[in-house]
Amino acid sequence: MMLYKVTITPSSDFATTLRGDTLFGQMCWAIAYSFGQERLGELLSDYREGKEPFLVVSDAFPKGFLPKPKMPSRFLKEKSEDKKLNRKKVWLTLDALLGGVYEEAKQAKDIEVDDSFDINIHNAINYQTSHTGDGFDPYGLEVFALGAKDIYFLIDENSLTSKELEEILTLVSEMGYGKKSTIGKGRFGIDSIDELKIEHNASVFMSLSPFSPKGIKAKNIYYDPFTRFGKFGGNRAYKNAFKKPILLADVASVVVFDKVQEHQYLGRPISGLSDIPEYSDTVHQGYSIVLPLKELADD
Protein backbone atom coordinates (compact mmCIF):
# COMPACT_ATOMS: atom_id res chain seq x y z
CA MET A 1 0.00 0.00 0.00
CA MET A 2 1.12 3.55 -0.73
CA LEU A 3 1.26 6.32 1.87
CA TYR A 4 0.76 9.95 0.81
CA LYS A 5 0.92 13.22 2.71
CA VAL A 6 -1.40 15.88 1.32
CA THR A 7 -0.97 19.50 2.40
CA ILE A 8 -4.08 21.67 2.14
CA THR A 9 -4.84 25.32 2.81
CA PRO A 10 -8.44 26.08 3.89
CA SER A 11 -10.07 28.86 1.89
CA SER A 12 -13.19 29.19 4.08
CA ASP A 13 -14.33 28.53 7.62
CA PHE A 14 -15.13 24.95 8.65
CA ALA A 15 -18.23 23.96 10.62
CA THR A 16 -16.98 20.38 11.23
CA THR A 17 -13.57 19.44 12.59
CA LEU A 18 -11.29 17.64 10.12
CA ARG A 19 -11.32 14.02 11.32
CA GLY A 20 -10.20 11.02 9.27
CA ASP A 21 -13.33 8.91 9.64
CA THR A 22 -15.58 11.81 8.57
CA LEU A 23 -13.37 12.67 5.60
CA PHE A 24 -13.37 9.00 4.56
CA GLY A 25 -17.17 9.13 4.33
CA GLN A 26 -17.05 12.21 2.14
CA MET A 27 -14.41 10.60 -0.07
CA CYS A 28 -16.79 7.67 -0.58
CA TRP A 29 -19.53 10.05 -1.77
CA ALA A 30 -16.97 11.67 -4.10
CA ILE A 31 -16.12 8.24 -5.55
CA ALA A 32 -19.83 7.63 -6.24
CA TYR A 33 -20.19 11.04 -7.90
CA SER A 34 -16.98 10.69 -9.95
CA PHE A 35 -16.87 7.00 -10.89
CA GLY A 36 -20.40 5.75 -10.24
CA GLN A 37 -22.28 3.98 -7.47
CA GLU A 38 -21.28 0.58 -8.85
CA ARG A 39 -17.57 1.33 -8.44
CA LEU A 40 -18.11 2.49 -4.86
CA GLY A 41 -20.18 -0.62 -4.14
CA GLU A 42 -17.33 -2.85 -5.33
CA LEU A 43 -14.78 -1.03 -3.18
CA LEU A 44 -16.98 -1.13 -0.07
CA SER A 45 -17.92 -4.77 -0.61
CA ASP A 46 -14.30 -5.82 -0.14
CA TYR A 47 -13.96 -3.26 2.67
CA ARG A 48 -16.86 -4.76 4.64
CA GLU A 49 -15.45 -8.26 4.21
CA GLY A 50 -12.28 -7.23 6.03
CA LYS A 51 -10.00 -7.44 3.01
CA GLU A 52 -7.20 -4.92 2.62
CA PRO A 53 -8.87 -1.48 2.73
CA PHE A 54 -8.79 0.53 -0.50
CA LEU A 55 -8.40 3.77 1.45
CA VAL A 56 -7.55 4.87 5.00
CA VAL A 57 -7.64 8.58 5.91
CA SER A 58 -5.92 10.35 8.80
CA ASP A 59 -7.03 13.36 10.82
CA ALA A 60 -5.69 16.77 9.79
CA PHE A 61 -2.59 18.06 11.60
CA PRO A 62 -0.70 21.39 11.57
CA LYS A 63 1.57 21.54 8.53
CA GLY A 64 4.85 19.79 9.29
CA PHE A 65 3.74 18.24 12.59
CA LEU A 66 2.08 15.20 14.12
CA PRO A 67 0.57 14.61 17.58
CA LYS A 68 2.60 13.36 20.52
CA PRO A 69 1.71 9.76 21.45
CA LYS A 70 -0.92 9.37 24.16
CA MET A 71 0.93 7.16 26.60
CA PRO A 72 2.24 7.49 30.17
CA SER A 73 4.83 10.23 30.73
CA ARG A 74 7.46 7.74 31.85
CA PHE A 75 7.63 6.34 28.31
CA LEU A 76 8.05 9.86 26.93
CA LYS A 77 10.89 10.66 29.35
CA GLU A 78 8.96 13.65 30.70
CA LYS A 79 9.67 15.17 34.08
CA SER A 80 6.80 14.67 36.50
CA GLU A 81 7.25 18.16 37.97
CA ASP A 82 6.51 19.65 34.52
CA LYS A 83 3.16 17.88 34.16
CA LYS A 84 1.14 20.99 33.23
CA LEU A 85 3.69 22.12 30.66
CA ASN A 86 4.00 18.63 29.18
CA ARG A 87 0.25 18.53 28.55
CA LYS A 88 0.62 21.58 26.31
CA LYS A 89 3.55 20.15 24.37
CA VAL A 90 1.62 18.00 21.92
CA TRP A 91 3.23 18.47 18.48
CA LEU A 92 6.25 16.68 17.00
CA THR A 93 7.90 16.62 13.58
CA LEU A 94 7.74 13.31 11.72
CA ASP A 95 11.47 12.71 12.25
CA ALA A 96 11.22 13.39 15.99
CA LEU A 97 8.21 11.09 16.31
CA LEU A 98 9.79 8.19 14.42
CA GLY A 99 13.07 8.71 16.29
CA GLY A 100 11.39 8.74 19.71
CA VAL A 101 12.76 12.22 20.51
CA TYR A 102 9.67 13.19 22.49
CA GLU A 103 11.49 15.93 24.39
CA GLU A 104 11.28 17.98 21.17
CA ALA A 105 7.49 18.22 21.48
CA LYS A 106 6.22 21.78 21.07
CA GLN A 107 3.21 23.80 22.14
CA ALA A 108 0.70 25.09 19.61
CA LYS A 109 1.96 28.65 20.13
CA ASP A 110 5.53 27.55 19.33
CA ILE A 111 4.63 26.17 15.90
CA GLU A 112 2.34 29.08 15.05
CA VAL A 113 -0.84 27.07 14.60
CA ASP A 114 -3.09 29.53 12.80
CA ASP A 115 -6.41 28.11 14.04
CA SER A 116 -9.25 29.95 15.73
CA PHE A 117 -12.75 29.19 16.93
CA ASP A 118 -15.85 31.34 16.82
CA ILE A 119 -19.64 31.12 17.05
CA ASN A 120 -21.74 32.65 14.29
CA ILE A 121 -25.24 33.70 15.34
CA HIS A 122 -28.02 32.87 12.88
CA ASN A 123 -31.79 33.15 13.01
CA ALA A 124 -33.98 30.15 12.20
CA ILE A 125 -36.29 30.76 9.23
CA ASN A 126 -39.46 28.96 8.20
CA TYR A 127 -38.94 28.72 4.44
CA GLN A 128 -42.66 28.22 3.80
CA THR A 129 -43.51 31.57 5.33
CA SER A 130 -40.11 33.34 5.00
CA HIS A 131 -40.46 34.35 8.65
CA THR A 132 -38.93 33.21 11.92
CA GLY A 133 -40.91 30.80 14.08
CA ASP A 134 -42.34 32.55 17.13
CA GLY A 135 -40.48 35.80 16.80
CA PHE A 136 -36.72 36.10 17.37
CA ASP A 137 -35.35 32.55 17.02
CA PRO A 138 -31.51 32.65 17.15
CA TYR A 139 -29.02 29.80 17.26
CA GLY A 140 -25.24 29.57 17.28
CA LEU A 141 -23.08 27.82 14.67
CA GLU A 142 -19.57 26.78 15.71
CA VAL A 143 -17.01 27.63 13.02
CA PHE A 144 -13.27 27.06 12.76
CA ALA A 145 -10.76 29.17 10.82
CA LEU A 146 -7.87 26.81 10.08
CA GLY A 147 -4.30 27.21 8.91
CA ALA A 148 -2.45 24.88 6.53
CA LYS A 149 -2.91 21.18 7.36
CA ASP A 150 -1.30 17.84 6.55
CA ILE A 151 -3.59 14.86 5.92
CA TYR A 152 -2.26 11.34 5.33
CA PHE A 153 -3.84 8.89 2.89
CA LEU A 154 -3.04 5.17 2.62
CA ILE A 155 -4.30 3.57 -0.59
CA ASP A 156 -4.28 0.14 -2.17
CA GLU A 157 -3.23 1.11 -5.70
CA ASN A 158 -4.73 -2.09 -7.09
CA SER A 159 -8.12 -0.68 -6.08
CA LEU A 160 -7.67 3.11 -6.10
CA THR A 161 -4.86 4.89 -7.94
CA SER A 162 -3.03 7.99 -6.76
CA LYS A 163 -4.52 9.90 -9.71
CA GLU A 164 -8.03 8.88 -8.62
CA LEU A 165 -7.20 9.87 -5.05
CA GLU A 166 -6.28 13.36 -6.23
CA GLU A 167 -9.43 13.57 -8.35
CA ILE A 168 -11.86 12.66 -5.55
CA LEU A 169 -10.06 14.83 -2.99
CA THR A 170 -10.27 17.75 -5.40
CA LEU A 171 -14.02 17.16 -5.70
CA VAL A 172 -14.38 17.19 -1.90
CA SER A 173 -12.38 20.43 -1.74
CA GLU A 174 -14.76 22.03 -4.23
CA MET A 175 -17.99 20.68 -2.71
CA GLY A 176 -16.90 21.55 0.82
CA TYR A 177 -16.24 19.34 3.82
CA GLY A 178 -18.70 18.72 6.62
CA LYS A 179 -21.61 20.69 7.93
CA LYS A 180 -22.95 23.76 6.12
CA SER A 181 -20.92 23.07 2.98
CA THR A 182 -23.94 24.26 0.94
CA ILE A 183 -23.36 27.79 2.27
CA GLY A 184 -19.62 27.77 1.57
CA LYS A 185 -18.10 26.08 4.61
CA GLY A 186 -15.31 23.51 4.41
CA ARG A 187 -13.56 24.67 1.21
CA PHE A 188 -9.82 24.19 0.76
CA GLY A 189 -7.05 24.13 -1.82
CA ILE A 190 -4.58 21.28 -2.36
CA ASP A 191 -0.98 22.53 -2.10
CA SER A 192 1.00 19.30 -2.54
CA ILE A 193 0.73 15.51 -2.64
CA ASP A 194 3.90 13.68 -1.56
CA GLU A 195 4.56 9.96 -1.36
CA LEU A 196 6.21 8.85 1.89
CA LYS A 197 8.57 5.90 2.29
CA ILE A 198 8.50 4.63 5.88
CA GLU A 199 9.61 1.27 7.27
CA HIS A 200 6.57 -0.04 9.15
CA ASN A 201 8.37 -2.78 11.10
CA ALA A 202 8.10 -2.19 14.84
CA SER A 203 6.55 -3.49 18.05
CA VAL A 204 4.94 -0.12 18.89
CA PHE A 205 2.63 1.91 16.64
CA MET A 206 0.69 5.19 16.90
CA SER A 207 -2.65 5.85 15.21
CA LEU A 208 -3.36 8.90 13.03
CA SER A 209 -7.16 8.87 13.41
CA PRO A 210 -9.90 7.33 15.57
CA PHE A 211 -10.12 3.55 15.06
CA SER A 212 -11.63 0.37 16.47
CA PRO A 213 -9.08 -1.71 18.43
CA LYS A 214 -11.50 -4.64 18.75
CA GLY A 215 -9.83 -7.91 17.84
CA ILE A 216 -6.26 -6.59 17.90
CA LYS A 217 -4.05 -9.07 19.74
CA ALA A 218 -1.78 -6.58 21.43
CA LYS A 219 0.29 -6.57 24.60
CA ASN A 220 -1.12 -3.17 25.58
CA ILE A 221 -3.04 -0.23 24.15
CA TYR A 222 -2.84 3.34 25.45
CA TYR A 223 -5.68 5.56 24.26
CA ASP A 224 -8.30 8.19 24.98
CA PRO A 225 -11.86 7.05 24.19
CA PHE A 226 -13.74 8.87 21.45
CA THR A 227 -17.48 8.50 20.79
CA ARG A 228 -18.53 9.16 17.22
CA PHE A 229 -22.11 10.38 16.81
CA GLY A 230 -22.21 10.08 13.03
CA LYS A 231 -24.72 11.29 10.49
CA PHE A 232 -25.61 10.16 6.99
CA GLY A 233 -24.82 12.46 4.11
CA GLY A 234 -25.82 12.88 0.48
CA ASN A 235 -29.18 11.38 -0.43
CA ARG A 236 -29.22 9.31 2.77
CA ALA A 237 -29.66 12.32 5.02
CA TYR A 238 -33.45 12.50 4.66
CA LYS A 239 -35.03 9.38 6.23
CA ASN A 240 -33.09 9.35 9.48
CA ALA A 241 -29.82 11.27 9.33
CA PHE A 242 -28.44 9.87 12.59
CA LYS A 243 -26.21 6.80 12.79
CA LYS A 244 -25.80 4.66 15.86
CA PRO A 245 -22.99 5.95 18.13
CA ILE A 246 -19.60 4.22 17.94
CA LEU A 247 -16.93 4.01 20.65
CA LEU A 248 -13.42 4.33 19.20
CA ALA A 249 -9.83 4.78 20.35
CA ASP A 250 -8.90 8.37 19.52
CA VAL A 251 -6.05 9.72 17.41
CA ALA A 252 -2.49 9.27 18.77
CA SER A 253 -3.40 5.99 20.49
CA VAL A 254 -0.43 3.66 21.02
CA VAL A 255 -0.59 -0.09 20.34
CA VAL A 256 2.16 -2.27 21.80
CA PHE A 257 2.85 -5.79 20.52
CA ASP A 258 4.99 -8.55 22.04
CA LYS A 259 7.30 -8.68 19.04
CA VAL A 260 8.22 -6.75 15.92
CA GLN A 261 5.50 -6.78 13.28
CA GLU A 262 4.72 -4.92 10.06
CA HIS A 263 1.60 -2.73 10.06
CA GLN A 264 0.64 0.20 7.88
CA TYR A 265 -2.83 0.31 9.41
CA LEU A 266 -4.78 -1.21 12.30
CA GLY A 267 -8.47 -1.57 13.08
CA ARG A 268 -11.51 -3.00 11.32
CA PRO A 269 -14.52 -1.88 9.26
CA ILE A 270 -17.66 -1.07 11.26
CA SER A 271 -21.14 -1.93 9.97
CA GLY A 272 -24.63 -2.04 11.52
CA LEU A 273 -24.89 1.74 11.80
CA SER A 274 -28.63 1.97 11.10
CA ASP A 275 -31.83 -0.06 11.46
CA ILE A 276 -33.08 1.22 8.09
CA PRO A 277 -32.85 -1.84 5.76
CA GLU A 278 -31.66 0.07 2.68
CA TYR A 279 -28.83 1.60 4.74
CA SER A 280 -27.48 -1.80 5.80
CA ASP A 281 -24.57 -1.49 3.35
CA THR A 282 -23.19 1.56 5.18
CA VAL A 283 -19.69 1.14 6.57
CA HIS A 284 -17.62 3.35 8.88
CA GLN A 285 -13.84 3.74 8.77
CA GLY A 286 -12.74 1.80 11.81
CA TYR A 287 -9.18 1.67 10.47
CA SER A 288 -6.31 4.03 11.16
CA ILE A 289 -3.00 4.60 9.47
CA VAL A 290 -0.27 3.83 12.03
CA LEU A 291 3.31 5.00 12.31
CA PRO A 292 6.09 2.93 13.93
CA LEU A 293 7.56 4.18 17.22
CA LYS A 294 10.76 3.34 19.06
CA GLU A 295 10.47 0.39 21.43
CA LEU A 296 9.25 1.52 24.87
CA ALA A 297 11.83 1.62 27.66
CA ASP A 298 10.23 1.79 31.11
CA ASP A 299 13.11 2.84 33.31
What does the model show?
By secondary structure, this protein is an alpha+beta fold. It has a domain at 1-65 and 111-197: 2-Layer Sandwich (Alpha-Beta Plaits). 19% of the residues lie in helices and 30% in strands. It is built from six helices and 15 strands. The chain has helices at residues 20-35, 37-48, 73-76, 83-88, 94-99, 162-175; strands at residues 2-10, 55-62, 66-67, 91-92, 116-123, 138-145, 149-155, 188-196, 201-207, 220-222, 225-228, 246-249, 254-262, 265-267, 287-293. The strands form five sheets. It has a five-stranded antiparallel β-sheet with strand order 10-13-9-15-14. The chain has a four-stranded antiparallel β-sheet with strand order 2-7-1-8. The longest helix has 16 residues, at 20-35. It is globular, with a radius of gyration of 20 Å. The model has no long low-confidence stretch (mean pLDDT 89).
Topology:
Layout lengths: L1 E9 L9 H16 L1 H12 L6 E8 L3 E2 L5 H4 L6 H6 L2 E2 L1 H6 L16 E8 L14 E8 L3 E7 L6 H14 L12 E9 L4 E7 L12 E3 L2 E4 L17 E4 L4 E9 L2 E3 L19 E7 L6
Antiparallel strand pairs: 1-7, 1-8, 2-7, 3-4, 5-6, 9-13, 9-15, 10-13, 11-12, 14-15
CATH class of the domain at 1-65 and 111-197: Alpha Beta
The N- and C-terminal alpha carbons lie at a distance of 36 Å
Helix amount: 10-25%
Shape annotation: globular
Strand order of the largest sheet: 10-13-9-15-14
Write a concise synopsis of the structure shown.
The chain has 299 residues and is of the alpha+beta class. It has six helices and 15 strands. Strands 10-13-9-15-14 form a five-stranded antiparallel sheet. Strands 2-7-1-8 form a four-stranded antiparallel sheet.
